[in-house]
Amino acid sequence: MQTGIPLFPENASTFATPVDTLYVALVLVSIVFMVLIAGLVIGFAIRYRTRPGSEGAKQIHGATSLELLWTAVPLGIVMVIFVWGTKVWFQISRPPAQAEQYYVTGKQWMWKIQHPTGQREINMLHVPINQPIQLRMISEDVIHSFYIPAFRVKRDVLPGRYSTMWFEATKAGTYHLFCAEYCGTKHSQMIGSVIVMEPADYERWLSGAVAGESPRDQGEKLFAALRCDTCHTGLQGARGPDFKGLWGQKVQLSDGSSVTFDEDYVRESILIPTAKTVVGFQQLMPTYAGQVGEDQILSLIAYLKSLSDPAQGGAKP
Amino acid sequence: MSSTVAPHAAAPRPDLPATDGHAVEPRENYLNVDYGWKSWLLSTDHKRIAVMYLITIMFMILVGGSFAILLRLELATPAGDLLQSETYNKIFTMHGVVMVFFFLIPGIPAVLGNFLVPIMIGAKDLAFPKINLLSYYIFLAGITLTLIAVAMGGVDTGWTFYTPYSSTYANSQVALAAIAVFVTGFSSILTGLNFIVTVHKMRAPGMTWFRLPLFIWAQYATSLIIMLGTPVIAITVALVGLERLFHIGIFDPTYGGDPVLFQHMFWFYSHPAVYIMILPAMGVMSELVTAFSKKRVFGYHIMAFSTLAIAVIGFFVWGHHLFVSGQSTYAGVMFSVITMLVAVPSAIKVFNWVSTMYRGDVWLTTPMCFAIAFLGLFTVGGLTGIFLGAMGFDIHVHDTYFVVAHFHYVMVGGMVTAFFGGIHFWWPKMFGRMYPENMGRISAAIIFIGFNLTFFPQFILGYMGMPRRYHFYPEEWQVLNVLSTAGATLLGTGYLLPMIYLPWSLKFGKVASKNPWGAKGLEWQIDSPPTTFNFDKVPIVTEEAYAYPEGSRHQREAEVV
Ligand SMILES: [Cu+2]
Ligand SMILES: [Cu+2]
User: Fold this and answer.
1) In 3D, which of B63, B88, B73 has the Cα closest to residue B469?
2) Which end of chain A has fewer CB atoms within 10 angstroms, the N or the C?
3) A147: nearest CA in chain B?
4) Are residues A162 and A270 both part of a single domain?
5) In B73-227, at which residue ranges do the beta strands (DSSP E only) sit?
6) By the 8 A CB rule, do A266 and A290 touch?
7) pTM here?
8) Taking the domain B42-317+329-560, which CATH number applies?
């Protein structure tokens, strides 16, 4: 039990200062209003207290100018706060293009993490300093929420749908990782650590950890093992669409609508192939629900993505 | 004091009515008209039903409060050493369910509203007295189902019942608790319906809309929210129950549902429910501040309209509970801006209450002490609501103790403080007895200090990052948690005191006059306690609400013991 009361969590990401600044501003505004209201209430309660010889109540019906004043001033202040809060929000919710993708799967009651280079860890997240990192997250059961107070970021992790969050750590150290959405008996033990390292230390850690294959390579193997390649041959007249250069493109569907070829669409098509069929193809694909886990789907996604990335030997969209 | 009460000449004897010269045996009233069990249990008198609600709700406060004390005791240490995690989770769930659905929501409407709505508008009873009794028994059925759910092992989903945990994964009495909430909803709906019809149809001659006490405006606006919102929560929890039993696939993605849809439906009701709790409290505040300042309310019209504005705008802010759940950014921006707007009418009200005290004749009775406590606590709660409405800030403190502290400041600091203020204000009217004034003031002070000690540290804990609903927590947060637990002990004591001296006063308190506070309002012109039909003849209203004459001063009759 330590003595002294800390007021701020560690400042360890690029978001911490903007969020703390907004917080301090809000606290100052609140203090001004509290002092004003408490001062008036206490002042009036004393000055106008009933007592022998008090002058009695002076009946005042209201004063339009005053009422306009205390409608307009709070309105102005909350609008400034709204704009400020929204600006901070946009900063936190828009990842830069060069962010590295990490994968997170939540389940009762642990966090499973996979690095772009294939290392896996549980309830720990090692990241390099000064590098934007994006987490692509999904839950295998109920809703969880990935929360790193030192970074001032949090995002719910949902079943059946990907969510993402990003951050850039600015200070080496070990920080709390919490599940912030109540998820059952051991919710308060669904915790871990985020370890921010200098790039060299991170490289050393990566080479020391059980490396395994990168998600992309695992995905490529799975693609063959699950026989995806018998239909998605990539050749003319194949029974399934060719994925080269398709990532991020709009795809025409057989019902006339279109959809972006992205993580959510790929995941849905693996689990419910009949939901959105690409125009010109028949509904031949069987469902893989129950045969592939969320981790494997993430690997397949990494592989399909690489097919549209020239740097990884894929085709230009 | 108005002309109905003569100034007391000699020191009155405690066993005698202080002022209006009745004999020792009080005149027949709604309490002594019949003592049989049946005459209570089958009564359609709005006042008797209010008393039955009061007793029931006080029992629920004790139940919910004991859960709270257990939670705070557990959190005095970082390790989960007092309770099992499973038990801890069930206790915070039951604390929330009991307090929200069986105290905060029905508290003021069912007790003070039931007692006062007909009297304040000059009517004999509510429009549908039998439906009023029915709504009480539905409420009782809801409580019974909840207690059965507790006895059968309890519920562990949190009072928010988030899916798919509640619909698929939880191994506890979710279906039963959902039925309990569903049933209780009908009790609210019937009460709301009753109030709306009563206010429209039963006002005494001369009681125009803009002569209504602001308490009535608040009950009216609350009833509108209840009628529009409660069916949605009833349907939502019913769907959770159905999904649990039959896997119908509304919320659980395994069956093709959408878990975030639940959050939209839940908060579509549960955000307005915050206003179901706080608007009646604001109505009580207007009565207390005017009565003890001997003043007209500052800006009657803007007070009435801001009540309606809160009721309407409050329906369009629910998405501020979903900033990190994955709703679209643009939806988030809209919900954020509307959340900011809804703060304005609340700010107006606070300033108008403060201005009502200006140049008044301020009498610091127990109810007024509670009113001042409300102003302090509700202002903190309201201001921190603006923090949470700012999206970039919410990301960090969402689902942390910052939120826990914020809503306790609004609901407990606001609604519960006003509830106690109102109970003390109308206690002489309801039961014809005065309670010991100084005990009342002391308990208001203890509650104010205990409350701040309990919940202020939680703002800091939240900003440090302590998630809510955590059974275990990191050691570095123990100091703040111990402070909070110490505060809770003090707060509990503050709430227990009135539960002792108020029942005590029923037998030993000084007999109250018609109008011990010298307040305006029709309820103060009739007997304490009122007769069964409230008025001997239909009152004719000729003046505005709070029409205190120029230069009014308190006679401080209640302080003479
Ligand atoms: Cu959790
Ligand atoms: Cu809300």
Assistant:
1) B88
2) N
3) B396
4) no
5) none
6) no
7) 0.90
8) 1.20.210.10
